[in-house]
Amino acid sequence: MANCAIVGINWGDEGKGRMVDYLARKYDVVVRYQGGNNAGHTVINEYGKFALNLLPSGIFQRKTINLLGAGTVIDPKHLLGEIERLREKGVVITPENLKISNRAMLVLPIHPMQDKWEEIRLGKDHYGSTLRGISPIYGDKYMKKAIQFGDLQYPQTLKTHLKRLIDWKNEVIVPGYNGQKIDLEEVLAWLEEYANPLMDYICDASEVLEQAQKENKQILFEAQLGALRDIDYGIYPFTSSSSPLAAYAPVGSGLPNLKVDTVVGVTKAYSTCVGEGPFVGELSGAEADALREAGAEYGAATGRPRRVAWMDLVATRYGVMLQGATELALTKLDVLSYLDAIPVCVAYEGNGRRTERFPYTPELEQMRPVYETLPGWKCDISGVRKYEDLPEAARRYVEFIEQRVGCPIRYVSVGAERLSLIIR
User: Fold this and answer.
1) Which position among 21, 28, 41, 111 bears the catalytic label?
2) Among this protein's residues, is 13 annotated catalytic?
3) Which residue among 85, 214, 235, 421 has its CA within the 20 to 30 Å range from the CA of 14?
4) Is residue 126 annotated as a catalytic residue, yes or no?
């Protein structure tokens, strides 16, 4: 059995969804192992164009089991809406091909409210949260107060547990923000409306994965966000609240003894970032607008304009190291076709020194990019499917990145559609 993780190398939004959608046909199980509906994976295939926030990107393969793992946090109202939108386009979704770990956490209405209150309190120092309640639900998880999906199967225990959670919120959290008191019966009614319809999808993820392992089936792990948003090793505190690293995939999936055999790290041919935090080399003005428009760089979950920069090899090397990437997928190479020359950040300068190592977060604010410039190719490459058919300058760009980050680039995307991909 060969298991594979598809992970982000940078700040997220690298194009992981299109890679999972492409590779899922080769796998028996696709697992989202962390995060919630605070990021979107854009997929374009025969069913249409979709921004998946919670559903694993293998959901379009009818024979593939798609699992929301123990490390995920799930807003059931959002998930129901996402399921309905895909069904309207002809995608078959049943408890046979979609499963939810009984250990996944339930995002309740209080969590997005709490998220919003905290961003307002922080003012100009806010983190740029998506306001989907992700930080508060992970906070509750690690304070051992959150509700798991499996609790829905035990109504009396659920009510007792939920009352303890709400009493705590009303005594400690709500007064601190001068918020409206939470009503237990209203939350129970909300769960009845939005969580109970998902009861048939709840499973023991470890049992599902253990059986797959026994049957020598192949598992594809799908990460959300990227290495630089990792709670432990990212640009803390401007991170997510979970670990999108490949090393966490078995834990977050539901069976910690699983092995990850291949790690496909996904990185764009330039840099983008949604949310706050240091972003070395960030472009502004007309230069930024041109790149953003060429790449349609707006958040799949929020619609927010993404911050843009040229390819950052310092950050990318760091991401490759954190992820233990065995190969890379370089996405959106076609976006750069409008440029006469393409800058690439090869090092940082700041605090009187030059470095090619990614610094600790507070140092990043003082860092400035050191560029090398490569020639552009100035032609449409979106129809190319063989590497040797790319213009020489495009191949030189790919190989320059490959050599500098020390990891082979196996996939090069030249369009958003599933098959707009060059396999090296």
Assistant:
1) 41
2) yes
3) 85
4) no
